[in-house]
Specification:
This protein is mainly beta. It contains three helices and 25 strands. Helix 1 runs antiparallel to helix 3.
């Protein structure tokens, strides 16, 4: 990892004679394909030669210092024993010397930069002055430097891992748009087992990457425990009228709803709320972007959400539309703040001119779009509430319940309705445990959602 210090151990294996002295050189950043990213710090005696009779001396010949602080170095090293007739007996020495070096601070978005430390001119002697062959079996230490800016999963190379990277992976999986070579390498990070230092790319970008990147964004940590770099693209409310999109959040004791007025179609959203004191357990997010995913950090009182369609089919057209409904019990809605907001349009660009309005109360009675909300509670027993909104009068609205076989269980309404928001309660006392579907159907709108009855 860039801007970090490291130690690598040099071993002396299969020694055939009693060794009294040795010398060699270390060449740093000198291979033709090397990037100048390493800085030699020092070399120390290991436990195999820790006795004071062993003397270690070295001289560093440094090349010009590059802007990142590294240089092309050559190090001349001598190790010998002061006592006549004393040396290392034939055998294996696993901890002979320790080489300390640092990795430079890499330029933004640079990653997997290769460099090397090479052993050359290795010679050794017995105390009688007879040569010992210590030709290295492995004379090259190859080092790949990673950027602190989270390149793994940062598909579009903007320095952040967020909803846009997810959408690019989706488009690759469903063959909407293929990733180029560099994008593919950044996306290919699965499998990556928790607690391991790095992924084991399998040469495929599929749902494994989609799930892993989503989990990293929601939890805020890579599998190795490294925290995710933060990004934020929403601006303070403005009155000059040049915003690309305006989002209005309604935060009340029943949860959080949001509506948007956008000049562009929207593919995905990443929204985080702070000071959320209540755990939204079993939260089912309702969004016209396809699906909603969330993670709640209890200690931080932080609610992270992702809104996008894993199938790459659903998006919200430009204009005034419903964005999301997050129904859960919120005892202190006035304390909730918006911590992060990222919107991605249909051209896979992040919108940067965003006006945000937060209203601690209920949405207006007259909605701007047809909306069928997720029922609550869900799962439920014995009954649940189904809510929907109509932006205009409809001659006939049907709200029906179906079982998993597609058989109609009941019809809650079948009538004309005025524009507004409606709630209907289904008492499922006589229904069996299982999955059910509810459908709202008008002459202009049809929507179906799933719910679960648990007895």
């Amino acid at each position: 990892l860039e801007d970090n210090s490291y130690t690598d151990v040099m071993q002396l294996m299969n020694l055939t004679d009693s060794l009294h002295a040795l010398q060699f050189r270390l060449q740093v950043n000198k291979e033709i394909s090397d990037n100048v990213i390493l800085t030699f710090e020092n070399i120390q005696k290991g436990s195999d030669v820790s006795d004071s009779s062993w003397i270690l001396q070295y001289t560093i010949t440094r090349g010009p210092i590059t802007p990142n602080g590294a240089s092309v170095d050559e190090v001349f090293i001598l190790l010998y024993n002061l006592d006549q007739g004393v040396g290392l007996d034939p055998g294996d020495y696993n901890n002979l010397l320790k080489v300390n070096y640092t990795v430079a601070d890499l330029a933004a978005l640079q990653d997997s930069l290769k460099s090397t430390i090479k052993i050359t001119n290795a010679e050794a002697s017995t105390f009688q002055g007879l040569p010992i062959n210590i030709t290295p079996s492995r004379d090259l230490l190859t080092i790949f430097a990673r950027n602190r800016v989270s390149w793994m999963g940062d598909v579009n190379s903007d320095g952040f891992l967020d909803i846009l990277d997810l959408i690019m992976v989706v488009d690759h999986i469903v063959n909407i748009d293929s990733l180029d070579t560099n994008e593919f390498l950044r996306a290919d990070i699965a499998p990556w087992l928790p607690g391991t230092s790095s992924p084991e790319p399998d040469g495929i970008v599929n749902v494994q990457e989609l799930s892993l990147i989503q989990n990293i964004i929601l939890t805020g940590f890579f599998p190795d425990g490294t925290p995710l770099e933060s990004s934020n693209f929403f601006t303070l409310p403005k009155s000059d009228g040049d915003e690309d999109v305006k989002i209005t959040f309604y935060i009340n004791k029943k949860g959080i709803k949001a509506y948007l007025d956008s000049k562009f179609g929207i593919r995905g959203a990443q929204i985080e709320f702070a000071q959320v004191a209540d755990d939204p357990a079993n939260l089912i997010i309702n969004t016209d972007l396809g699906q909603g995913f969330y993670h709640y950090l209890v200690e931080d009182k932080l609610l992270r959400t992702l809104l996008y369609d894993p199938l790459g089919e659903q998006y919200i057209e430009s204009g005034e539309h419903f964005l999301v409904d997050m129904p859960f019990e919120l005892n202190k809605p006035e304390e909730v703040t918006l911590d992060k907001l990222i919107l991605v349009d249909v051209t896979r660009e992040k919108l940067k001119k965003i006006q945000v309005e937060i209203i601690y109360g209920n949405p207006p009675l007259s909605p701007s779009d047809f909306i069928l909300y997720q029922n609550y509670p869900n799962p439920f027993n014995p009954g649940t509430t189904i809510e929907f909104s109509l932006p205009e009068d409809v001659g006939n609205a049907k709200l029906s319940i179906y079982n998993a076989l597609g058989e109609k269980v009941t019809e809650l309404i079948n009538t004309s309705l005025k524009a507004g928001t409606y709630q209907y309660y289904w008492n499922a006392n006589n229904a069996a445990t299982g999955i059910y579907f509810y459908e709202l159907k008008t002459n202009k709108f049809v929507s179906v959602k799933k719910m679960m009855l648990l007895k």
